Amino acid sequence: MSKYAKIEDGIVTNVILCDDSEISTQVGHHIKVTDLTNNAEIGYEYVTEKNKFKSPQPYPSWTLNEDTFLWECPVEKPEGAEVSIFGTVIGYRWDEESQSWVNI
Amino acid sequence: MAINSFPSQAGGGQANLNYIGSIHMETYNRRWDQAGGAGYYAIYSTNQENGYAYFVGNGTSTGAPLNRLVSVSHSFTRVDIIGPVNDMMSLYKAEVKSSALFPNPFDADATVGKLSIPSFPSIIRTSGNFVLPNNALPLVNVLVNGAGAQGGHHYCGGGGGGGSVVKLTAYQAVGTTSITVGSPGGDANAVGGRTYFGNVYALGGGGGGHHSGHNPASSTNTGNSGQAINLEVGNGGGAGGHNSTSHMYGGQGTTQTSSTGLGTSGTPLYVGGFRGGNSSGSDSQQNGGGGGAGAGGNGTDGNNSNAGNGGPGHVSDISGSNLGYGAGGGGGRANSNNQNFGSGGANANYGHGGRGSGYGSQGHSGGDQGTVVVRYYIP
Question: Beta strand A83-85 with A88-90: parallel, antiparallel or unpaired?
Answer without folding.
Answer: antiparallel
